[in-house]
Amino acid sequence: MTMTLVGLWHGIHIGFILWGFYHGLLLSIHAWSVQKRFSWVGTWIDQSVTLVAVFVGWVFFFSTSSINLWYKLQSMVGISGWGKITPIFAKIPHNLYIPLLVMIPIAFSRYAEASGLVQFTNRSKKTAVLAGILLAITLLLLGEPGDFTYVQF
Q1: Residues 54 and 128 in one domain
Q2: I need a surface site. Which of 53, 74, 127, 150 has the fewest CB within 10 A?
Q3: Do residue 124 and residue 73 come from a single domain?
Q4: What pTM was computed for the model?
């Protein structure tokens, strides 16, 4: 119910409401699966399913009508064609194919989490946080200011 209201907060549009309900449903399924202590929770299978589920959720969020929503969902599985996926792959330089193939399994493994690989001391944690804050400020100051997404609220 709360996530449905969060969707409604984004706007009075069926896509936003469905997006909120969908995410509430996903959170409920996650809580239930953690409570049942399924063996796949926290594995690469769980991470992959979560990623696909989030992508589907964004379709709800960005659809302008129910017809547009249905078309996008069909396109995600190839029923309405693959859209612009071929031009996207054509823009990837050939010398990046092998690094990308190596990085994809790493991204879905526990090795991608740096905090699990390195033991931080208290001082290095403070230094890392300070460096992160400085990096964020630097990135914010790089470009021209844009409108805040929720300026209408």
Answers
A1: no
A2: 150
A3: no
A4: 0.55
* Same domain flag for 59 and 131: no
Taking the C-alpha atoms of residue 38 and residue 101, their distance in angstroms, rounded to an integer, is 29
Residue 113 confidence (pLDDT):
58
Same domain (yes/no): 64, 129: no
Range of the domain at 53: 2-92
- CB atoms near residue 52 (< 10 Å): 11
pLDDT reading at 115 higher than 70:
no
Residues 21 and 80 in one domain: yes
Mean pLDDT of the chain: 77
User: CA distances (Å), 153 to each of 7, 11, 96, 127, 150, in order?
Assistant: 14, 10, 42, 36, 6
Tens of pLDDT, residue by residue over 53-103, are: 988 888 888 887 878 888 888 877 777 666 666 666 677 777 878 887 877
Same-domain status, 126 and 62: no
Rounded CA separation 53/76 (Å): 12
